[in-house]
From TrEMBL:
<dbReference type="InterPro" id="IPR036985">
    <property type="entry name" value="Transglutaminase-like_sf"/>
</dbReference>
<dbReference type="InterPro" id="IPR038765">
    <property type="entry name" value="Papain-like_cys_pep_sf"/>
</dbReference>
<dbReference type="Pfam" id="PF00868">
    <property type="entry name" value="Transglut_N"/>
</dbReference>
<dbReference type="InterPro" id="IPR002931">
    <property type="entry name" value="Transglutaminase-like"/>
</dbReference>
<protein>
    <recommendedName>
        <fullName>Transglutaminase-like domain-containing protein</fullName>
    </recommendedName>
</protein>
<dbReference type="InterPro" id="IPR008958">
    <property type="entry name" value="Transglutaminase_C"/>
</dbReference>
<dbReference type="InterPro" id="IPR014756">
    <property type="entry name" value="Ig_E-set"/>
</dbReference>
<dbReference type="InterPro" id="IPR023608">
    <property type="entry name" value="Transglutaminase_animal"/>
</dbReference>
<dbReference type="InterPro" id="IPR050779">
    <property type="entry name" value="Transglutaminase"/>
</dbReference>
<dbReference type="InterPro" id="IPR001102">
    <property type="entry name" value="Transglutaminase_N"/>
</dbReference>
<dbReference type="Pfam" id="PF00927">
    <property type="entry name" value="Transglut_C"/>
</dbReference>
<feature type="domain" description="Transglutaminase-like">
    <location>
        <begin position="322"/>
        <end position="419"/>
    </location>
</feature>
<comment type="similarity">
    <text>Belongs to the transglutaminase superfamily. Transglutaminase family.</text>
</comment>
<dbReference type="InterPro" id="IPR013783">
    <property type="entry name" value="Ig-like_fold"/>
</dbReference>
<dbReference type="InterPro" id="IPR036238">
    <property type="entry name" value="Transglutaminase_C_sf"/>
</dbReference>
<dbReference type="Pfam" id="PF01841">
    <property type="entry name" value="Transglut_core"/>
</dbReference>
């Protein structure tokens, strides 16, 4: 039996109400279950037939076809049929079933699209759009406008194509289908499922259009990536689960644009404005955003940044609690921003810059002040150099920047969510054109000077003898900043070096002229002195072995050479080893060694300092970073020498074993993860954390103790959810050793029965049981 239509005071699931302003009746729904095709309850056909006004029985959203054509079928909400997810600039199909035959001569139909969270939608702002479909689909109108056309009409069924403009706000939309009998009443059918409209890098008319097919796969569709960490002399790739298609990630990404980013609905289609908002909303400094930063070694009350394996758990937690997730450092901020950008449809990649400058005074220099005892003055030294810093690049056109000497500023744009310096009174960076950075155009919006300094500042060492004494330049290093700028290669699990996209080759004429060009644009013309190059008889060179495993001892070696053919010199000084955070601050002395060398003409000598495990272990930060420095004076000259370098001990990798034969979708297999203890002491309270395709929540395996030389192993049953490529990732933490990770990339073959059904896809997995072992 059908439900009876009743007045507003007696309604149950349906009600007649007065359309605001014109007194015509409008059919509305309440308490609708949206978990079926087109989601809407049917109008009782007998009752509907009694009315001459055309009534909508149901709407087939053609979910499978639309999601395939719009590259959105991987989203959880698409697979679960919880929403229609489309990309702007391309049409999508609706099939509407009426209660009687549709007659173009007497029936009028219109589609009303409204931004879901706009309290005052209006056509002028583009947040309220009324479409009347025309006959045929040969032309759906201008690319900048909404369009609708009738594809086919058979009796009571009408198939239409609807095209959002290529500038459409990227957000959740509501759809009402209004029907009207010419000269008589009207009805309205509210679609129960939301429609999510995303950016479209496949559409040439979209501002985020990315022409290269492989790059679209990598920067929009791939859900796992590599983030490079470590130091420039010890690069360390870490796997990160982007997870842009997982449950609630898209909903959270769309929501935060309004709730945290405070972008008015009308402007959510502008990728420049969205990118700038993302750089602020991912951190919590100004707006209680997604992640709370913490660069100490105390992570009580939250999760240590090194323990996160991806963005999904972070965004799901924020979506649920609407409270900043604790804690994060630069690569976590970057990973989450990449997830949000890719879910929205903006091509995004993660960038690591080794020896990255943090210029606090906008001088385009990093100034280090040294006292008379060769100790760095922390109060005066506000600039710093991070072992590495991680940010994002987002791909888009930049019509707002015009055309420069070297062309447009389209392409990759730096967006950095790590809160370092305020920009327009909020902690954010970008979007900054990478092309503008390379060519010294530091005044182009946004934050060009800050990014230029990160990759190309000059590092200056100053002798500071007090406020009333002149500064003495000890050393000027034009090669210290911006090494090995890295990202994951397209469709390869390896590093791509993109340094040349940010800067001209070091020591080249172009690099120096670009630096001078940038300095002339800076409002902070720092006084610059040059090293007294007239004395070059004595040469200092630090030597560090760059492949030391944690647990091993290492040596710091300073080579001193007298290049004079006739004169002997006496050099005195000190070499030091400090444990530091990866940001280059928080130094704790591990060991120091003074020296005095008498150098005969045309000779070299060495200063060697051995550092053993017991000396450094208790002072080491979680990322195992050291800062090595050497300071020296040459007697009877005015020459002072000072240099610093970064050093990192290597941590072991987690090893994977996935089954004994081929990996097949929906076929259970055994997975084993293993880690060998590299330390000369036992490990206690160990935990493996594992993530992979089909594992909805990270798996945790506890290891009580791993003896010296022992191996920990965790075993579990795993069922790959679908055919294609997969990446399993693991983290290991313990009381004595943490921030250890590993990953395994593999191909999943389709089931034999699926080869006859190429469109079959499943989102399921079976974790049956787990086991942990310690092998002495």
């Amino acid at each position: 039996m059908g439900q009876k239509l009743s007045c507003c005071k007696k309604c149950d699931d349906w009600e007649w109400c007065k359309r605001k302003g014109n007194g015509e009746p409008k059919l509305r729904m309440r308490n609708v279950n949206a978990n079926y095709l087109a989601g809407a309850p049917k109008i009782d056909e007998a009752d509907a037939a009694s009315s001459a006004v055309l009534g909508v029985l149901r709407v087939d959203l053609c979910l499978e076809d639309n999601h395939d054509e719009h590259h959105t079928s991987h989203f959880y909400a698409a697979a679960a049929k919880e929403a229609l997810i489309v990309r702007r600039g391309e049409p999508f199909r609706l099939r509407i079933h009426f209660n009687r035959d549709y007659s173009p001569s007497k029936d009028a139909i219109s589609f009303i699209f409204t931004v879901a969270d706009d309290t005052k939608p209006s056509p002028g702002h583009g947040t309220l759009n009324a479409l009347v479909p025309h006959d045929g689909i040969d032309s759906l109108g201008d690319t900048l406008e909404w369009g609708a056309g009738i594809e086919s009409h058979e009796g009571q069924t009408l198939t239409v194509l609807i095209k959002p403009p290529s500038t459409c706000p990227v957000t959740e939309w509501k759809l009402d289908i209004d029907t009207k009998l010419l000269g008589d009443g009207s009805r309205s059918y509210p679609l129960p499922l939301p429609i999510y409209v995303l950016f479209n890098p496949w559409c040439p008319d979209d501002q985020v259009y990315l022409e290269d097919r492989d790059q679209r796969k990598e920067y929009v569709m791939h859900d796992t990536t590599l983030i490079w960490r470590g130091s420039y002399n010890r690069l360390r790739p870490s796997v990160w689960k982007i997870g842009q298609f997982e449950r609630h990630v898209l909903e959270c990404s769309l929501k935060v644009l309004g709730t945290v980013g405070r972008i008015p609905p009308a402007y959510r289609g502008d990728p420049v404005r969205v990118a700038r908002a993302l750089s602020a909303l991912v951190n919590s400094v100004d707006d209680d955003g997604v992640l709370l930063g913490n660069w100490s070694e105390d992570f009580s009350g939250g999760v240590a940044p090194t323990k996160w394996t991806g963005s999904v758990e972070i965004l799901q937690q924020f979506h649920k609690t609407q409270k900043s997730v604790k804690f994060a450092q630069c690569w976590n901020f970057s990973g989450v921003l990449a997830t949000i950008a890719r879910s929205l449809g903006i091509p995004a990649r993660i960038i690591t810059c080794y020896s990255s400058a943090h210029d606090t005074q906008a001088s385009l220099t990093v100034d280090v002040f040294i006292d008379s005892n060769n100790k760095k003055l922390d109060a005066e030294t506000t600039d710093s150099i991070w072992n590495y810093h991680v940010w994002n690049e987002l791909w888009m056109q930049r019509p707002d920047l015009g055309v420069g000497q070297h062309g447009t500023f389209d392409g990759w744009q730096v967006v950095d969510a790590t809160p370092q310096e305020a920009s327009d009174d909020m902690y954010r960076v970008g979007p900054t054109s990478v092309s503008a950075v390379k060519n010294g155009e530091i005044l182009r919006p946004f934050d060009g000077g800050f990014v230029f300094a990160e990759v190309n500042a000059d590092k200056l060492y100053w002798r500071y003898n007090g406020p009333s004494q002149p500064l003495k330049l000890l050393r000027k290093d034009t090669l210290a900043i911006g090494h090995l700028i890295s990202t994951k290669a397209v469709l390869k699990w390896e590093r791509e070096d993109i340094t040349d996209s940010y800067k001209h080759a070091e020591r080249s004429e172009e690099e120096r002229s670009t630096m001078l060009k940038a300095l002339k644009q800076s409002r902070h013309a720092f006084s610059r002195y040059y090293l007294n190059d007239n004395f070059n008889d004595i040469e200092f060179e630090m030597e560090l072995k760059d492949d030391i495993k944690i647990g091993e001892e290492f040596s710091v070696v300073l080579k001193v050479t007298n290049k004079s053919e006739s004169r002997a010199y006496l050099a005195t000084g000190q070499i030091s080893c400090d444990a530091v955070l990866y940001t280059g601050v928080g130094a704790v002395e591990v060991k120091a060694l003074g020296f005095e060398l008498e150098l005969q003409p045309m000779s070299s000598d060495y200063v060697r300092m051995e550092v053993i495990f017991e000396e450094y272990f208790g002072k080491l930060s979680s990322q195992a970073s050291f800062q090595i420095s050497a300071a020296a004076k040459v007697k009877d000259t005015d020459y002072d020498y000072f240099a610093q370098d970064d050093f990192r001990v290597r941590k072991p990798d987690i090893k994977f074993q996935l089954g004994d034969a081929g990996i097949v979708a929906q076929k259970e297999l055994d997975v084993i993860v293993r880690l060998e203890n590299p330390l000369p002491i036992p490990l206690h309270k160990g935990i493996f954390t594992v993530e992979g395709p089909g594992i909805e929540k990270p798996l945790n395996f506890k290891i009580t103790e791993i003896p010296v030389g022992g191996t920990a192993a965790a075993t579990f049953k795993y069922t790959p959810p679908y055919a294609g490529r997969g990446t399993m990732i693991a983290k290991f933490t313990s009381k004595e050793l943490d921030d250890v990770d590993g990953y395994k990339h593999y191909e999943i073959e389709p089931r034999p029965e699926d080869l006859l059904q190429p469109n079959v896809s499943h989102r399921s997995s079976n974790i049956i049981r787990r086991r942990t072992d310690v092998i002495a």
